[in-house]
Amino acid sequence: MTGQILATLLPVFLIAGCGTLYGRFRTPDIRSLNTLNMELFVPMLVFAVLADRQAPLADYASLALAGAVVVLGSGLLLWPVAKWLKLETKTFLPPMMFNNSGNMGIPLLVLAFGEKALPAAVVLFIIEMLLHFSVGLYMLSPQTPLWRLLRMPIVLASLAGLAVNLGGVPLPGWFLEALHMLGGVCIPLMLFALGVRMLDIDFGDWRTGLLGAVLCPLSGLVLAVPLIWWLDLSGLQAAALWVFAALPPAVLNYLVAEQYRQEPHKVASLVLIGNLGSLVVMPVVLALIFTHVYPLA
């Protein structure tokens, strides 16, 4: 089991570490890389996975519901905590709700469970992204029009992929293979970008960041455990929800906070210290998964 955990986590942190090392000496334009990834490579991967008729998406409805409850429920669960600690809810709650399902979640699930975990990883990623760009933006700015959501390439790719899959439209194998190859670029690029972002860590608000590093995975897991029982999730889907629930805050929280001028330095501490905290959290969660949820063969 220890070997499997190391085999899962070491590539994640090695690629992220390469990003940190490269960014330390070269200062790459990571915003342009992220734009390319989110507008081209990620939508291609999402479409390819969803359009593939070998992935019965109807089987993932309960997992999608569970993912949505984990995201929204984390905010509801931690709202009284934020009020009690006199934290600004617009600053504290979004990073607790919207986790790193892209940069860390997809690579981690694929490395832990193989390519068969990719549909579950993509479904959870889409749920988190849709909620982030609807509920999340509304939390920061209630005036934000929701129609902006339909302009996002990942949303368009999701709708097109679902239409192809549910409509039973056959696509040529060479076409899907090309999309998978291009979409596969996004996974290491996500981790590399995460590593570069780690250079921006601000320890000035380390207490808030440390609090978030504990509460983010804790709130997700508190919700995930009863959801697995209630929705009768088992096997790979239960394991995927465990990983999803324990993920640290998404880097995107910092970019959104910067755009809306919502205390971006505090959000940066929540995001980056939370991701550092995953060095401790994820091995524990994977150990529990491999022993109790999805035992090794």
TrEMBL record:
GO cellular component: membrane
Spans through the membrane: 6-23, 35-51, 63-85, 97-114, 120-140, 152-172, 178-196, 208-230, 236-256, 268-294
Cleavable signal peptide: none
Record's bilayer topology term: Multi-pass membrane protein
InterPro entries: Mem_transp_PIN-like
Main location: membrane
Compartments, as annotated in UniProt: Membrane
UniProt entry tagged with the keyword Hydrolase: no
Protein name stated in the entry: Permease
The species this protein was found in: Halomonas daqiaonensis
